Amino acid sequence: MIETFNIQGFISAFVVLFAIIDVVGSIPIFLRLRNCGKEIHPEKGTLASLIIFLSFLYLGEALLDLFGIDISSFAIAGSLIIFVMAAEMILDIEIFRTAPNTPNDATIVPVAFPLIAGAGALTTLLSIRSQYALINVLLAIMCNIIIVYIVLKLTDKISKFLGASVIYVLQKIFGIILLAISVKLFITNVTILIEQ
User: pLDDT for 52-72, tens place per residue?
Assistant: First the structure.
């Protein structure tokens, strides 16, 4: 394990987190939420994601142990939520129905969790924490959070630039990718549980 800051460790941790967070790939989901009348506040969403990441980095395993939940079970639960969201995108259906008392603000759920700081990202965070020095992981989180803020802030401009038809096609493509991620996350962690 590397004990001090290391550029290679930082880049590795950053790239792994960037790939699993996939905030760019979530743009069609953010747009879909806004088209459904939901509000997304970039500053609040970014801050909430950062708090979730840092909390899980320091307290994740202890918190899961407190409730008797292993990381694999947590990841499976997250994969099911991602699966349902992907199904909505691909099939143009609404599974998460809006009840009269449902908040109009989608910033915390589902944007901060599970889209940005989801089960996959949080379990990955614990994995890279065991491989790299804490400073490398913290800097990787901060750089990814900056990118998350930029994407959330510019979502509407990106939408106008691309146009409705391109966004619709992207929604289908990223829906399938999200579906594949959820299936992989599910199968990997079910296999781990069965082996245990």
Answer: 999 999 988 788 888 888 878
